[in-house]
Amino acid sequence: MKGLFFSVKRYSIHDGQGIRVTFFMKGCPLRCRWCHNPEGISPLPESVVQTNRIGTHKFSHVEEVGRYYSIDYILEILNKEKVFMNHSKGGVTFSGGEPMLQAEFLLEALKVCKEKGYHTAVDTSGYSSVENFKSIIPFTDLFLFDIKHLDDVKHIELTGASNKDILNNYLLLTNCEKDLYVRIPIIPGMNDDIDYLERLRNFLISTKTDSLKRINLLPFHKIGSSKYKKFNIPYNMEGKEPPGKVKMQELKEFFMETGIPVKIGG
Amino acid sequence: MKISDRVRKLRDQSLNAVEKISAERALLITQFYKSDEARELSSPMKRARAFEFLLKNKKLCINEGELIVGERGPAPKETPTYPEISLHSLKDLEILNSRDKVSFRVEDDVKNIYEKEIIPFWKGKSNRDRIMSLMTPEWLNAYDAGIFTEFQEQRAPGHTVLGYRMFKTGFLSVKKEIRAAIENLDFFNNNQAFEKLEELNAMDVTCDAIIMYANRHADELERLSIDEKDNKRKKELIEMADICRKVPGNPPETVHEMLQHYWFIHLGVIIELNPWDSFNPGRLDQHLYPVYKQEIESGSLTADSLDDLLGCFWVKFNNHPSPPKMGVTASESNTYTDFCLINLGGVKPDGKDAVNEMSYILLDVIKEMRILQPSSMIQISKKSPDRFVHKALDIIRTGFGQPSCFNTEAIIQELLRQGKTLTDARNGGASGCVETGAFGTEAYWLTGYFNLPKILEVTLNNGVDNRTKKLIGLKTGSINDFRVFDDLIEAFKLQVNYFAGIKIRGNNVIEKTFASWLPVPFLSLLVEDCIANGKDYNNGGARYNTSYIQGVGLGSITDMLTSIRYNIYDNKKISWKDLAIALEADFSGHEPLQYELIYNTPKFGNDDDYADQQAVTVFEIFYDSINGRSNTRHGVHRINMLPTTSHVYFGSVTGATSDGRNAYLPLSEGISPFQGADHNGPTSVIKSASKIDHLRTGGTLLNQKFSPSFFEDEESYEKLTALIRSYFSLGGHHIQFNVVNAETLKDAQKYPERHSDLIVRVAGYSDYFNDLGEDLQNEIIRRTEHEEV
Question: What gap in Å lies between CA B644 and CA A222, rounded to an integer?
Fold first, then answer.
């Protein structure tokens, strides 16, 4: 069995505890307007032209984005990074794209990683069936779970998909005795007005359990903008500016009232 | 630490002082050597009397407001020369005065003195002249080709650090030790007894000389106190005079006395000769802590007065640039600084964690003073608390390259392997850049950098130096004779062995020139067991005597060999002929091949065994050719892996290489991957770097570049600490974080090919800088500018 990935990141320090390896799985059912990993959207391998320079000479070659990895290959990489995980209580994170889109492979990968004693995390939009989540819960130590918007209509507008399953899955995960970091993207003009954020805060408080270990506030950024060009996808966040430091600090304090540790960034 | 007005002024004075050549020492030493007295003396006594003459006649300098006194030159940054070691010509002085980087102002009167007094006397008589006349044609050929450099060509052997003993004793007791050693001399059975007597008498002279020098300062301070209008300063001057009457003759009992005591010793060492690398106080937190504690408890020292003392002490180091070099030596170590590497942390002689309150206080001093010298490092043992590492990271993040991080357990194991006792090993540390030594007991001389990539180039050219077309190596066969990759490795091994032999033979002659003509009786007082042995530091008197040769360009040569193995032998993508033609043309017209070599060939630094295997092969060849071969001081040669700035010089003599590097560009530095060759981030670099056996070296150097955003909060400190501890658990010796500044990022934007290893972090996400769009790059540059301290 193989899974499709678009990137592997070592010394990954923002996707869960400790020093981790994050595997980015390719394919995503959502179309978030601010997506910073557009190369993770299509569930198929893609080719892009990569250009490198030597002095004034330009060299282009076609680069495959999207490779199929076996679980053995994943273990091979994790084995190389073991010493760092041991010293930092780190582990492996499956991110995306949306890793749940390859639920069968993900389940197998998590099972084997768990067997080998790795701390496992899944970084998800929550957009998948309850059954899929139920199947991976026993083999996942930490969920990184996005809440992009609470209103279904708004959610559809921003991401192209309903949030019904997402919120159900969120409730499931708050009650499964696994660690949960909720990740809130702060996108100017889309989900950052104070009335909404107040509702979101109330929602987090009302659904709070011991599982919820942390709130990550992820400020909108433009890291992905150049990739859009590369992948020939229209970029619809032109002109949007990232929220400033002061605003993020204010929001951090605002969410601290939930009684849950809040961090800006991952 | 609070920087007081006093310290701020002294710091400004130091930062603003112009580096200048002072002719004072050259003039005095010439005067002495010309004297009738000098002519009749044995070498040790001549050097002792010269030392005494210098200290008796040199101008004293007491700077306004300072609490620790003594300057090597007539004023801060006025730097003496050492014509007995190497003689600057008028042209050298002109170059020093006018060169762009690391220039020293040379006034006309200095040039006059040189022309009339110094050059006529020393021409042909400096030790450099002596060395060059004693070297074989093979040595001179290899040296000219840039196969190796020679440390002792313009500097005296140094590389030793003060240990516990001299922080607890004064020179009056040292005189008693000398007396006892003289009484123990066995004139009946030991045919060296007379030489030992001469040496011990010479040592005795230098004890008196350093006490006399301190007393001269006391006299001057008393004189100044009489004229001083400010009562507070008047009182200080009187106190300082009292201290200079007490130390270094007697053991220091307060922090102030200890710092002044050390500083007189330091000056003695760097006035006597110009040893590489600068002598330093080593485990300063350990030395200071007991007296500090006593004084804080008794109330004789306040936090503010401690800050003032440490601030004044710190400035002293910065006032003393490295003695000006010339020629090749200037490019191999093109810097003003002499790396006084203060060690903090580590373990105590009994093996317990040595981190104490003073370790934190000194980290604070490093942070607030923010000057290049003294340099600083932390020794991290398994027992060191994370808080200690975090505090150091807090300084590292400000991007001034200090402190660097060392593995205490590795240092101890390296020293034990070399036969040191456990106590001597635990009292050791690193000095210079990364060099392991047993502090207070070892003379560990660095003798020269060794250009491994150049030796491969010579191998590929059947012993000929491509630049000069001269046969300088062995004829180990043409490239067409290398049927399999291992044939090439065998040929390379023969060449390394050949050049190592040339270098070691040279070392063994050069060591003797110092033993015979330039003993250092003062430095010999400081390093155990020179007195007991009745032997000079420069003649194998120390308890341990090691000679090092420093391998340079591990990353480059690994990539060069890997490329040959991968492209020519294993995958048959290119022929030897194609490669030879492309290298000869410096890739001009062969860019597609160069592209393959750079972008589609495995590289060191990615935790890829295929590539890293060549690093191990080269390491073992280098190790076998040097480790254990005798020096002349009852010790042996050993290896370490560090470049200072020699990778730039060595690159400038090495043509285009099979890793795709253009001719004459810098080689890789330390054991770091070649600039831009690593693509998997710091964990892979660490894994690759730890595949060689650090514990069989006397130090390795690994640099890692990070943007400040990797240091943003406590959590990132925890992860960096884990990264460091992981490397150390794999046996890594040293790691240094270079936190890049906006300027570097701008350069990376302009010249992406030079910076493809540069990792930056943007909002919860990190990436190679080159992979980002220009607008984003600009945003990161702006933010980095903002974050810079």
Answer: 39
b (16+ CB within 10 A) / e for B745-757 = beebbeebeebbb
Separation of CA B330 from chain center: 14
C-beta separation of B237 from B223 below 8 A = no
| Closest CA of chain B from A19, distance in Å | 6
Task: Confirm if B641 and B700 have CB atoms less than 8 A apart.
Answer: yes
Which candidate, B82, B175, B183, places its Cα nearest to that of B125?
B82
B52, B435, B442, B669: which is the annotated catalytic residue? B435
CB distance A87–B725 less than 8 Å? yes
**CA distance readout (Å), A249 to A223, A255, A265, B731:** 21, 10, 11, 41
Do the Cβ atoms of B776 and A88 come within 8 Å?
no
Q: Which helix (H) or strand (E) holds B512?
A: helix B485-517
Residue A6 per-residue DSSP state: E
Question: CB atoms < 10 A from the CB of A156, how many?
Answer: 13
pLDDT in tens, B245-266: 999 999 999 999 999 999 999 9
The domain defined by B128-737 folds into Anaerobic Ribonucleotide-triphosphate Reductase Large Chain (3.20.70)
B435 part of the active site: yes
B765 touches chain A (CB under 8 A): yes
Span A26-36, average pLDDT: 95
- pTM (2 decimals)? 0.94
Confidence of residue B738 (pLDDT cuts 50, 70, 90): confident
Give B136-177 as a DSSP string. Answer: -HHHHHHHHHTSB--GGGTSB-------SHHHH--HHHHHHH
Query: How close does chain B come to A104, measured CA to CA in Å?
Result: 27
B607 at interface of A, judged by CB pairs closer than 8 A: yes
Calculate ∠ Cα B317-B699-B421, nearest 5°. Answer: 95
Residue ranges of domains in chain A, CATH in brackets = 2-264 (3.20.20.70)
Cβ neighbours, 10 Å, residue B584? 14
List CB contacts of B230: < 8 A, sequence separation 6 or more.
none
Tens-digit pLDDT profile for residues A138-165: 999 999 999 999 999 999 999 999 999 9
Q: Which residues of B touch A84 (CB under 8 A)?
A: 683, 722-723, 726
Mutation pick from A54, A123, A186, A246 vs chain B, by most beta carbons of B within 10 Å, is A54
C-alpha atoms less than 13 angstroms from C-alpha of B201 in its C-beta half-sphere: 14
Instruction: Provide DSSP, B411-446.
Output: HHHHHHHTT--HHHHHT-EEETTTEEE-TTTEEEEE
pLDDT tops 50 at residue A263: yes
How far away is chain A from the Cα of B690, in angstroms, using its nearest Cα? 12
Domain ranges of chain B: 128-737, 740-789
